[in-house]
Specification:
2 strands; 2 helices; 19% strand; alpha+beta
């Protein structure tokens, strides 16, 4: 049986003309699974990922990161070691602040 685990992530940013950086406003993300899977195993009644759903979403996003690192390296856009260092730095920044995790919903 083939099935799909879909993770979607949207960054909301603000940018002022002339600034070198944008300001992070929010990160919205959610999980969806193919019709041939039992949705209740991945999402609870409120639409939040279950333990299995959280693990599946993490695997989905990690595989997307790995693919992006390989692609950028193969296209000589970014050295894979420097890319990994950047990812680690961004993870450190993300855990240095208090997060408010709430449910994200997308229409498409």
């Amino acid at each position: 049986m083939e099935f799909e685990i879909r993770g979607k992530c949207i960054l909301k940013l603000a940018h002022q003309k002339g600034d070198k950086k944008s300001t992070h406003i929010a990160t919205d993300f959610n999980l969806d699974v193919s019709e041939n899977l039992e949705r209740s195993e991945y999402l609870d009644k409120e639409g939040f990922p279950t333990a299995l759903g959280s693990k599946s979403l993490t695997i989905c996003f990690v595989q997307a990161l790995v693919g992006n690192i390989h692609q950028a390296h193969q296209r000589k856009q970014w050295n894979d070691v420097e890319h990994l260092k950047f990812i680690i730095s961004e993870l450190e920044k993300g855990f240095a602040t208090v997060a408010d995790a709430s449910k994200s919903e997308f229409t498409s």
